[in-house]
């Protein structure tokens, strides 16, 4: 049994950075510089999204987690807190396509949040950890090397090879998807007994509450946003899909991180179960209202969607 557990731990050790690097590279390849720049010029939207993701969600969520700490294992609570601090997930692009949200309204704020996460987590996470020691400088180096650098490289490749950027982005996205599957299977497999205990405990309700809190905070931010964010529930999806890659990278830098990793993966799984049906249903309604032909490819966010294409730069 120990040989199997060692193998699963090895898979986790490889899959987590592979997932982070591939997903960030894919995001960079699919996010033009002008999209990022245009988003920065809309200060009202930037402030609304940053406040929701880096003030409201971490503050309120952490307070709730601490209040419920008597009923939630310590390591699981720490995992939840790390998730609350991580924003800017590449999977937002897929959810946005499902929900028929214009590409720029997903990609622009997501890029802003990713940069914010790289700056925010090394400072805030060590302050919020109560039972786990986290090295701020190690976290900063890890996020810069495995998240920000691949995104910048992707943007550079997209600028040099614009005709190949979308294809390369999909290839990198495929690698990220495979790494994610391996990450979940190995993470849950190496801690199967603990996972079952969590599913039958209040921890599952806390994970559901985190996603719901983030969606509401993002939805309110969407109502206050400026002209670059025209679909109010776009920021809701953006905020509730936490950056699992960043959270896992930070968690693996802590001692005895196995249970923390499981808590993060549990939150990700709960978010997937809650957000994908919402995005598909919302996208279906929007396409029918617009009189567009609905196909399975469009519903799952992989088909060309005239209502969610990039807007030309202004």
UniProtKB/TrEMBL annotation:
<keyword id="KW-0812">Transmembrane</keyword>
<feature type="transmembrane region" description="Helical">
    <location>
        <begin position="194"/>
        <end position="216"/>
    </location>
</feature>
<feature type="transmembrane region" description="Helical">
    <location>
        <begin position="111"/>
        <end position="130"/>
    </location>
</feature>
<dbReference type="InterPro" id="IPR038770">
    <property type="entry name" value="Na+/solute_symporter_sf"/>
</dbReference>
<feature type="transmembrane region" description="Helical">
    <location>
        <begin position="136"/>
        <end position="161"/>
    </location>
</feature>
<feature type="transmembrane region" description="Helical">
    <location>
        <begin position="80"/>
        <end position="99"/>
    </location>
</feature>
<dbReference type="Pfam" id="PF01758">
    <property type="entry name" value="SBF"/>
</dbReference>
<dbReference type="GO" id="GO:0016020">
    <property type="term" value="C:membrane"/>
</dbReference>
<keyword id="KW-1133">Transmembrane helix</keyword>
<feature type="transmembrane region" description="Helical">
    <location>
        <begin position="168"/>
        <end position="188"/>
    </location>
</feature>
<keyword id="KW-0472">Membrane</keyword>
<feature type="transmembrane region" description="Helical">
    <location>
        <begin position="6"/>
        <end position="25"/>
    </location>
</feature>
<feature type="transmembrane region" description="Helical">
    <location>
        <begin position="46"/>
        <end position="68"/>
    </location>
</feature>
<feature type="transmembrane region" description="Helical">
    <location>
        <begin position="260"/>
        <end position="285"/>
    </location>
</feature>
<protein>
    <submittedName>
        <fullName>Na+-dependent transporter</fullName>
    </submittedName>
</protein>
<dbReference type="InterPro" id="IPR002657">
    <property type="entry name" value="BilAc:Na_symport/Acr3"/>
</dbReference>
């Amino acid at each position: 049994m120990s040989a199997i557990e060692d193998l699963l731990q090895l898979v986790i050790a490889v899959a987590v950075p592979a997932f982070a690097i591939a997903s960030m590279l894919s995001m960079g390849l699919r996010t033009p510089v002008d999209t990022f720049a245009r988003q920065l010029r809309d200060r009202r939207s930037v402030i609304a999204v940053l406040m929701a993701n880096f003030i409201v969600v971490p503050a309120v969520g952490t307070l709730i987690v601490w209040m419920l700490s008597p009923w939630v294992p310590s390591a699981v609570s720490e995992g939840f807190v790390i998730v609350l601090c991580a924003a800017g997930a590449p999977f937002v692009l897929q959810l946005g396509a499902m929900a028929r949200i214009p590409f720029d309204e997903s990609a622009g704020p997501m890029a802003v949040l990713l940069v914010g996460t790289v700056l925010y987590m090394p400072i805030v996470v060590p302050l919020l950890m109560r039972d786990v020691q986290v090295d701020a400088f190690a976290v900063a180096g890890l996020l810069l090397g495995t998240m920000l650098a691949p995104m910048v490289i992707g943007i550079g490749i997209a600028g040099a090879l614009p005709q190949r950027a979308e294809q390369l982005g999909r290839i990198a996205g495929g690698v990220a998807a495979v790494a994610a599957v391996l990450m979940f299977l190995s993470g849950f497999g190496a801690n199967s007994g603990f996972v079952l205990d969590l599913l039958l405990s209040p921890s599952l309700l806390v994970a559901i509450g985190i996603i719901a809190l983030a969606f509401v905070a993002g939805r309110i931010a969407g109502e206050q946003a400026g002209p670059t964010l025209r679909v109010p529930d776009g920021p809701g999806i953006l905020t509730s899909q936490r950056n699992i890659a960043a959270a896992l990278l930070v968690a693996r830098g802590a001692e005895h991180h196995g249970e923390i990793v499981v808590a993060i993966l549990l939150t990700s799984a709960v978010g997937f179960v809650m957000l994908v049906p919402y995005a598909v249903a919302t996208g279906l309604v929007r396409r029918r209202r617009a009189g567009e032909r609905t196909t399975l490819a469009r519903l799952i966010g992989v088909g060309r969607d005239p209502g969610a294409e990039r807007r030309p730069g202004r």
